[in-house]
# Entry
Amino acid sequence: MADNSATASQVPYEVNTDVPQTARIWNYWLGGKDNFDVDREVGDQILEAFPAIVENARASRAFLVRAVRYLAGAAGIRQFLDIGTGLPTANNTHEVAQAVAPECRIVYVDNDPIVLVHARALLTSTPEGATAYIDADLRDPDTILQQAARTLDFTQPIAIMLNGILGHIPDDEQAQSIVKRLLSGVRSGSYLTMNDGTDTSQEVVEAARIWNQSANPTYHLRSRERIARFFDGLELVEPGVVSPPRWRPEPSPSGLVGEVDLACGVGRRP
Ligand SMILES: C[S@@+](CC[C@H](N)C(=O)[O-])C[C@H]1O[C@@H](n2cnc3c(N)ncnc32)[C@H](O)[C@@H]1O
# Structure
């Protein structure tokens, strides 16, 4: 992968290093280096209240990898719209998809300027495929669909990916309407894959409280049932909406399949 480390001189003025930011805190928990003292400070406070956060972050990325492999493999999808990309890490969407089918085309979307700084690491591609990056906000799905059409062919199925981002939209009605607008823009046979935090333990609820005191944007846990409603009208891929380690697990040496405070799923637009 291309070098993705930003030096201080490359950090644009829009990047606020005084306020902890979601992409950078997530990067910290995943063991990345693209974060600042403010991010590590709140990241550590949350770690203390909720030590399983690191396991949650890893389980979440592992789900993303299995879901993309499934979509590019068994489901035959060749186009991905990954909204809320995050900072480049191991196994980015285009790497996983193009390892299965080199002709896959991927559009990444994020609204954090630091992700934009690192986007060049995401913009590598096989010669047969393509990757692109859009600096846009999930709350403006029309702009996302319009700009994605420069790279993706909307007459063909597209997998819309919303991993760890809908929790940043507190209102269920607004979040539902965004998901519906995105799905209405893609053709039958397209997919939605998503994954988000659930209010399933006292520790994770405390972690969200700490997060919302200082980090940007705020993050709101939902019950598994509320998360499952984002798939209304879609054909859920087995095993449905579950804790990520239970979604089509690959054999592991320990054989353990655990619960984490997340819910994920993949659904097909009929
Ligand atoms: C927790 S990270 C998840 C990263 C990646 N999807 C993953 O699963 O590892 C959430 C990402 O969503 C982005 N994000 C949050 N709110 C957003 C919005 N309204 N529009 C676009 N991106 C947003 C953040 O900048 C961050 O990169």
